Each structure stands twice: as structure tokens, then as C-alpha cells.
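Hmm, what's this shape?
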Amino acid sequence: VVTKSPLTGTVTDSHQGGWSGARLKWAGLDGLIFRGKAEKPVYAYIEAGKVELKDASDLWGKGAHETIKILQ
């Protein structure tokens, strides 16, 4: 994940394990670029190379394990 601060312009990155990168590639995508800011919590739903931002209000404040159970 690479991000750029809208306030300072600073670019930074982080790394994660798991299958996210491989699954993104399997969906036919090399990467994602999000610009701007969502007005409410959203998540990216990716299927067959198409990306849709979906409402994540019901997930807001939940932990990672609970969120995964809900999304599966």
C-alpha cells in the first residue's frame, strides 16, 4: 500500500501479508488508485476486474476478525 498525504504531500508505504496482491491480479488488476475522500465509510468490492465502492457503515469500529466474518 502506497499513500500520499493530502495535507503534506508526503509519500509513504506499508506492507501486508496474505493473498491480497495475488487476488487483485487474479481479478485482472495490477493495482488500484483511490483519489479524494469518501463522504462515509466504504470498502472496495472487486470482482472480475470491476471495482465497486460499497457502504461500510455497518463495519465501522469492528475488529478485523469480526469484519472478515461479516464480509464472507
Remarks:
- The chain has a mean pLDDT of 91.
- The chain has two helices and four strands.
